[in-house]
Batch of 2 targets.
Target 1
Amino acid sequence: DIVLTQSPVLAVSLGQRATISCRASQSVSISSINLMHWYQQKPGQQPKLLIYRASNLASGIPARFSGSGSGTDFTLTIDPVQADDIAAYYCQQSRESPTFGSGTKLEIK
Amino acid sequence: EVQLVETGGGLVQPGRSLKLSCVASGFTFNNYWMSWTRQAPGKGLEWVASITNSGGSTYYPDSVKGRFTISRDNAQNTLYLQMNSLRSEDTATYYCTRAITTFYYFDYWGQGVMVTVSS
């Protein structure tokens, strides 16, 4: 299985940039297609798709969210961070059978 | 509007069985693969099962293979998860998800249903 590693917690100030990383145990890219996706889960809610194929914004997601990366290293950026962004963020790969990272909890400083 | 509504959760003893259902609406159900993903209390997400749009093929991780069976009724827009030989480690919230098969991500999630395996 491909293991995805995320830092457990990230604390940022409101209005600043948050950079959430996800590292895969092996490449999740095929040619130019990056098979990494990001989800947001607010407390008590189901996950919601934010970014697919590393850098494509899902429908209805604000432009302050963006994604980048290739191979084994991927980043979700939130700029600027708003109070409503307090949540856990999960990466998921689909290069092989789907696996998720352990999640990064975004906290406000 | 896409909606996925799960039912069938509850408390079950170890070794027993439980069947979850998910009723889908707001999209053409038989055009999409569907999946189940679970989340143990306070933990991360784990993919549990997927089924092709026709129901002809199914996929599972090793953790549930041979114990869980995913199925669907396209006439009733309903997805199922039959869970047998349940273990305490199967305790989780189970989410019904719509899968975008080309790149295998999950674009819609139900609200989830809790399954507790305990004596």
Target 2
Amino acid sequence: SQQGEEDPQALSIQEGENATMNCSYKTSINNLQWYRQNSGRGLVHLILIRSNEREKHSGRLRVTLDTSKKSSSLLITASRAADTASYFCVSSSGGSYIPTFGRGTSLIVHP
Amino acid sequence: GAVVSQHPSWVICKSGTSVKIECRSLDFQATTMFWYRQFPKQSLMLMATSNEGSKATYEQGVEKDKFLINHASLTLSTLTVTSAHPEDSSFYICSARQLGYGYTFGSGTRLTVV
């Protein structure tokens, strides 16, 4: 499977700051989802955005999708130390429906 | 919502033994299941795709004789790591696809081979 790119690969911020992570993918998609993963643990689903949507909000999360650039961004506002985790975008393309992971962004929020 | 139960959540085994990991879709029929592996500080890499009743399709570089996948029913898929070695130590996670509804991930299995 082709992995998308995510940047930054690592992000270190102070509590209260906003964190922005970007993800790019290679093929046309049905939808794109963002997950978080605490160290060595399972995946927690954060938000899904469909290919016909441009922006979606959920609490402190804001996701955008630009299908012309094949990219998505995840913004976490007013970050907390508990937001420290790895964040992955997962895309599902039109033909295969195989969930494909981006490289992930490791976020550290300092209290 | 759709739930995928994955067991065990962690396992320690001796080198040379085999380990079986199960994934069950609890309230839906999974037409397709995907198996992923994640090494420390890396992303999740697709190992294989399995459709109920047919042989799994393995990604390049994944040994099908070492990682046996069985998808005998629409609610159960198993991954057996045969003759495990320390380099097989990893985090394994499954994902089940429900036709028309997308996919759901299991909670993962941490395998440590000693």
